[in-house]
Amino acid sequence: xxxxxxxxxxxxxxxxGIQSILATRVAxxxxxPIIPTLDKVGYWSMETWGxxxxxxxxxxxxxxxxxxxxxxxxxxxNTPQQMLxxxxxxxxxxxxxxxxxxxxxxxSAENGIDIFRTFDALNDFKNIQxxxxxxxxxxxxxxxxxxxxxxxxxxxxxxxxxxxKIEDAGSDSIAIKxxxxxxxxxxxxxxxxxxxEQLSIPVHMQTHATTGMSTATNMKAIEAGIxxxxxxxxxxxxxxxxxxxxxxxAIFEEENVSIDLDLKALEEISIFFKSVRKKYSEYxxxxxxxxxxxxxxxxxxxxxxxxxxxxxxxxxxxxxxxVKEEIPRVRKDFGYPPLVTPVSQIIGAQALLNIMxxxxxxxxxxxxxxxxxxxYGNLPGEVNPELxxxxxSLDEGMSENKPEELITMKEELKKLCVDNKLDDLSENxxxxxxxxxxxxxxxxFFKSLK
Length: 450
Hints:
The protein is an alpha/beta fold.
């Protein structure tokens, strides 16, 4: 008797699909009409929140990210809601205290999140250990995650060691997060095979299409026995995004693999997002095919487009190729961290400083100093000794990245509201968390609520 392997699908169009292709600029009102149809498809989960969503809502859209989550949850009662968090960084760009992390996770669960995918940019297990424990306390699904990368200090032993720690911490599942599309098909087969052999929890995977390998990588992962993969509806897939949902369904339609989704509903969803993509086309990147830069220099597409805009603002667009060459050098000097938020921004900004200043490390950003001195966690490889010595000699004035406690920030927010003639938002925990996570842009957002 032939055994059919069932593979679940996490649809990412409402979060990572929009983030990768349309810079997270799509307003909630343009998503609401299709949500009931998405709920009919039969996805294992729907990624709706986290990543850059929170930031983009308050920075660009004047939307309350918590309200977005509540709307999704209300209109999709049959599909578990999933979010991405950066461990102790949550959805911000620095480490927060355990008290802040705990409150954020609690409110996220209360507002509709069922599955929390938690990762650390350095793959430092200590930075996700607390989030896994807190998610389990809330009775929600904790998905510990590895940020996949390639370097002289990353290999199969590295990944299996991290995977075992994730399982032992009580995670309900483990995810491979291939944010740059670097996981090759046969490497995926080997990695997933080993994970399935040595772990007892389900294995999930997210891989981007940027390098052109994602569909083949997903296929080999399925052949190796993976339990769940991330896909995006066809009209919002490929380039900077992910493999198309319908493509993976079609590939395995007559094989011993069951991806049980409503194809009629998928067609309706794809047609809907064609118009969404057209409406927000100004936010699309320039890439039309694949980005071979990723295969050599491992520069994520979003990171590259951001650097291009910064150079343009300084009338130095002609230096983009020099910056591309500098990024791998900086990454090596910093101990080969994966290029994922917030580390990718730190590495990219430092490479930019080096090129624009015509001097390597003459100017070090505070974020670079904090990263090099271990304030974000343990770097995976050896740091350039001369660079580290310079960082330690510049200790004075460095940001300590001290976690802000809720009580301190509550008083600060209360005063801010009084000074700006706003209603007191400090008693609203969601608004308080917004202020803690994004203090520099929160006031503009609060004013938009009036």
